[in-house]
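Structure first, sequence second, as always.
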């Protein structure tokens, strides 16, 4: 099965690595609909930065659900997001 690749901010990278963050959010927009709906992934590879030697970790992908949330990253209003469920974590 294939792996999904995502870049992520350091704060969220560290929270996932520490296993205090169990979901990663992406706005429900055409890009993420095309990436997620009807697709199967075994893991998500998160990279903190765009350099080829930026830190990476791999999280088991347990699927997603669509949620309405309010989060500082997205502003003050409720937004619809894909809440990507994360399982076992390992640093690469």
């Amino acid at each position: 099965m294939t792996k999904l690749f995502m870049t992520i901010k350091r704060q969220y990278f560290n929270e996932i690595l520490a296993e205090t963050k169990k979901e990663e959010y992406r706005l429900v927009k055409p890009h993420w609909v095309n990436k997620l709906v009807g697709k199967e992934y075994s893991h998500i590879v998160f990279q903190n930065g765009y350099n080829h030697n930026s830190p990476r970790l791999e999280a088991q992908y347990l699927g997603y659900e669509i949620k309405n949330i309010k989060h500082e990253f997205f502003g003050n209003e409720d937004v619809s997001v894909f809440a990507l469920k994360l399982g076992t974590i390992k640093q690469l």
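Margin note: The longest strand covers residues 56-69.
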